[in-house]
Amino acid sequence: MAIILVVDDLAANRAVLVTLLGYQGHQLLEAANGREALDLARSARPDLVITDVLMPVMDGYELVRQLRLDPATRLIPVMFYTAHYGEHEARALALSSGVSHVLTKPVDPEDVLVAVASALAEREQAPPALAADFDRDHLQLLTDKLSRTDEDLRSANARLQALVHIGLELASEQDGAQLLHKVCVAARELFGASYVTLGVFEHNGRLAQHFVAVGVDCADPWAPGDLPPLLRSVMDERRCVHGVNPRGRAETMAFGPGHPDIHAYLAGAIASPAHVYGWLLIVSNDGRTFTSQDEHLLSALSGQVGRIYENGYFYRLARHERDRAQRYLDTADVILLALDLEGRLEVINRKGCVLLERDERELLGRDWVEMCVPASQRAEERERFRRIVAGDLSVVRGTVVTAAGRERLIEWRNTLLRDGDGHVLGTLSSGTDITE
Predict the structure, then answer these.
(1) Fewer CB within 10 Å, N or C, the chain?
(2) Contact at 8 Å (CB) between 53 and 90?
């Protein structure tokens, strides 16, 4: 069995090869960069070096150069193990330095075993001398790679910044239909798509009245049980997927004969942590394909949309219940008001507003005693409020003053408002005008 040196700055990448080749009985050595690998190669004389290309301290190409310049290590075969250097220029540079095998991450175990066996069988063969322009080509390749990396980072930062802005804009939208339309417009721009469609199911399982298509004329053709497999799977599995439909015909993906063409697609579930609401389909028909990075971006966007849509749903539900409760309060022929523990007005019905000659907006959030009790009686009224909060729920009488300065005598019946744990949150009072 052979001594094999595995070089990679990521321990997880080294572990893949060490575990796989360890089962073959090989003796494995590890290094985190080219400098460590060079020292190990000179001392342990491995039968094979498998190295990453882009590493700190010393990269894979410089490691190969140093090995080839040293007579003691010149004959050691080297394999590249990289996720980035599969381009033609990189492979040509590898061959010019005597690197005959290039493995691409993620690696197939069978490919590794075949390549390792081949490299070990050739280890007695002298590698070619370094090409005269090796250093120039190496520098050019690294410069190109860094340039592309810089461009990729700039693009990624711009898209992430756009995603943040989209989230902020969507979070302020309370109308469900407008929210979903804005989502489609933003997604089409963010991904440079030909068109975007979106559908949402309500909690009861029926397709909501909202089906949105931006960039194409497309009616809503599906009942919940008739969704195409692609859309059904992203909802069932709460995930994002991308792919290519070679001939572009939507019928081959079970979308129905009337659906627009789909050449490349990106699809994801609109979901909150608690519930899946629907799907988002992004289509490119201009030759562009989507990537795993696009999947991650869509996952972030659809997660934002799921949470915002859910918050809006519960907001609308709560507003509906609040309005219904307010209607009940407004039908009462007594004054109804709720105060928090600081004595601020939280709820008042129409009867109270009419008696006080004030609009609800003038009263809510204001100090009840300061706003509605005559100055001469405020100290006594504050003491009375403290006794109520402490548990004295006796029927009491007090004076209120209207916006016009008229005083009215009110008989109050009080109760305490508590949370689920029994802690007092405030007071609820009903008052009858007994002035006459």
Answers:
(1) C
(2) yes
